[in-house]
Amino acid sequence: MERRTKQREVIWRTIQQAGRPLGPQEVLKLAQQRLPNLGIATVYRTLKAFLEDRRIVVVEVPGHTPKYELADLKHHHHFVCRKCDRTFDVNDCPRGIKNMAPPGFVVEEHYVALKGICPDCRNHGAGD
Ligand SMILES: [Zn+2]
Ligand SMILES: [Zn+2]
User: Fold this and answer.
1) What pTM, to 2 d.p., does this model score?
2) How confident is the model at residue 1 (pLDDT cuts 50, 70, 90)?
């Protein structure tokens, strides 16, 4: 397989199998398990191509590194850990959120992000 195609495929599989949104550095680390010579520039270039193809979407929470996830996931929300900066999926959705808009407004979408400390950081994060 051509090198560039191979890199694309490994990065795609990394995002598919992650089970949560990944930042560029996370994609790099995981993909390097299969392609040790992979560089961060290739990761950025490939993420950009996937975004343009609408295969992935960006998950942005203010104050945190943008993460990337598959574009065709069903409706869900995110939890961002303020210590390790990792993002996790949250499958619960607040009830009655549509009723928060003032009378006359039609709600079509909503975004909810939870921020806090993940179990790993709770258990091992005594240092800082
Ligand atoms: Zn954490
Ligand atoms: Zn929701």
Assistant:
1) 0.88
2) confident
Helices 40-52, 24-31: axis angle to 10 degrees equals 110
125 located within any domain = no
**21 inside domain:** yes
Q: Considering the domain boundaries, does residue 128 fall inside one?
A: no
Q: Is the pLDDT of residue 127 over 60?
A: no
Residue 121 tokens, joined = 């950081």
Cα–ligand 1 centroid distance for 83 (angstroms)? 5
Q: Which ligand is nearest to the CA of 74?
A: 2
CATH number at residue 102: 1.10.10.10
- Two tokens, residue 49: 């191509």
